[in-house]
Amino acid sequence: MRIVNVPLGHRSYEIKIGAGLLVRLGDECARLGLGRRCAIISDTNVAPRYARKAMRTLSTAGFEPVLITVPAGETAKSLKSLQACYDQLAAHRLERKSFIVALGGGVVGDLAGFVAATYLRGIAFVQVPTTLLAQVDSSVGGKVAVNLKAGKNLVGTFYQPRLVLCDLDTLKTLPAREYRAGLAEVIKYGIIYDSALFRRLERDLPKLTPKSLAAVVARCCEIKAEVVEQDETESGLRAVLNFGHTIGHALEVISHYGQYLHGEAIAIGQVAAARLSAQVLGLSAHEVERITNLFQRASLPTEAKLTPTRRQALFAAMRLDKKVSGGEIKFVLAPKIGQAQFGCKVPYKFIEQAVRS
Ligand SMILES: NC(=O)c1ccc[n+]([C@@H]2O[C@H](COP(=O)([O-])OP(=O)(O)OC[C@H]3O[C@@H](n4cnc5c(N)ncnc54)[C@H](O)[C@@H]3O)[C@@H](O)[C@H]2O)c1
Ligand SMILES: [Zn+2]
After folding, report:
1. What is the pLDDT of residues 174-204, one digit of tens each?
2. Cα separation of 211 and 324, whole Å?
3. pLDDT at residue 335 above 80?
4. What is the torsion angle, in degrees rounded to the nearest 10, for the CA atoms of residue 271, residue 221, residue 41 and residue 125?
């Protein structure tokens, strides 16, 4: 088992990474000294596979778990699911010392985390991420939210979990497309922060051995922890984690979240950001090629074929993104593999070219 510490003063916590960790959930929660009653929040894909195991380990450790299942998919990050969760917590009489276990991907983690942050003004929660994206990204760092009709993650807060337990075995049942989408965030960490990680991925992808997977997930968590430690609420540095996300989010918006998974959209966004990095910060042509090739090795898309009308829609969506301030689109760019700068101003015509080629 690998352990990564997220050092945030009295809100510090550990991320534990390894195969077969789910059966230890009960003991791990017992070590945290949490109250007896707890609720596992999961979705209709994950609960049938893993909820029984999670319930059993918690019961064996002396807890009294109940299971709350929400529909699988992004629609579960809604005010409606939120209300359903609150009602069930109240019906089961969860109290201040009770806690919540988020068992699932980023959707369940974001929803359950927001429930935990707000029910009774906040009760403890533990993340058990079951997608690659959730293990390397969404379960770490404390951003929790639900969506509104007007946009994603518009109602949320920062609320750190007490523990993140990444059982790598759960990834075995993850659909291949979801796994690849998670790799897009993994590659991102290499580009923005760690050239050795990037080289390791060049060597090991498309197939990560169990040993390599464990090392890679741990390294990604470490990087996210380091960034979050320095800038928990995204007033600066944390923005580097958005590399490839300005164009990626806009692509998701104009396709109404139907065509691309998040990871696929940001793969395209990262390749475009690499091209912009070449123009604005002098990233070498060779490194742009290495970046493009690595996404291809991971079977991720590297460009979007857009009609002129759709390209216009893309720009409009970028200008509406919440990362825009004062009407100017600012980018995270990489002067070389392993380093990133946020807040880079990019001339409009460069963006157009990067999306076009
Ligand atoms: N809080 C953050 O910092 C942060 C960061 C990135 C993304 N997010 C959010 O995360 C969400 C996306 O997360 P995601 O990609 O994990 O999607 P997801 O939670 O929808 O999971 C993807 C699909 O895989 C299924 N699934 C999950 N684990 C499985 C398993 N082990 N076996 C079989 N099927 C499984 C799910 O039911 C779902 O159908 C978005 O809402 C996004 O906004 C949050
Ligand atoms: Zn992302």
Report:
1. 999 999 999 999 999 999 999 999 999 999 9
2. 40
3. yes
4. -140
Q: Is 143 in the pocket of ligand 1 (CB under 6 A)?
A: yes
Question: Buried (b) or exposed (e) across 89-105, using 16+ Cβ within 10 A?
Answer: beebebeeebbbbbbbb
DSSP string spanning 85-130?
A: HHHHHHHTT--TT-EEEEEESHHHHHHHHHHHHHGGG--EEEEEE-
Query: What b-and-e string marks burial along 223-254, b requiring 16 or more CB atoms within 10 Å of the CB?
Result: bbbebbbeebebeeebbbbbbbbbbbbbbbbb
Pair 277, 271: CB distance under 8 Å? no
Q: How confident is the model at residue 130 (pLDDT cuts 50, 70, 90)?
A: very high
Q: What is the pLDDT of residue 83?
A: 98
Q: Which two tokens stand for residue 159?
A: 């609320």
Q: Where are the beta strands (DSSP E) in the chain?
A: 2-6, 13-18, 37-43, 64-70, 99-104, 124-129, 143-148, 151-158, 163-167, 330-333, 341-345
pLDDT in tens, 1-56: 999 999 999 999 999 999 999 999 999 999 999 999 999 999 999 999 999 999 99
Task: List residues with catalytic annotation.
Answer: 121, 143, 185, 224, 234, 238, 242, 245, 249, 262
Q: Using one digit for the tens of pLDDT, what is the confidence trace for 225-264? A: 999 999 999 889 999 999 999 999 999 999 888 889 999 9
User: Does pLDDT of 89 surpass 80?
Assistant: yes
**Rounded to a whole number, what is the largest CA-CA distance in the chain?**
62
Cβ–ligand 1 distance for 72 under 6 Å, the answer yes
What is the reported pLDDT for 316? 86
* pLDDT for res 325: 62
Distance 93 CA to ligand 2 centre (A): 35
d(CA 260, CA 210): 27
- Give me ligand 2 centre to Cα 12, in Å: 23
Question: Six-digit token pair at 28?
Answer: 């791990």
Contact in structure between 324 and 307 (CB atoms under 8 Å): no
Beta-bridge mates of residue 165: 16
Tell me how far apart the alpha carbons of residues 322 and 315 are, in angstroms, rounded to a whole number. 14
Element spanning 351, H or E: helix 348-356
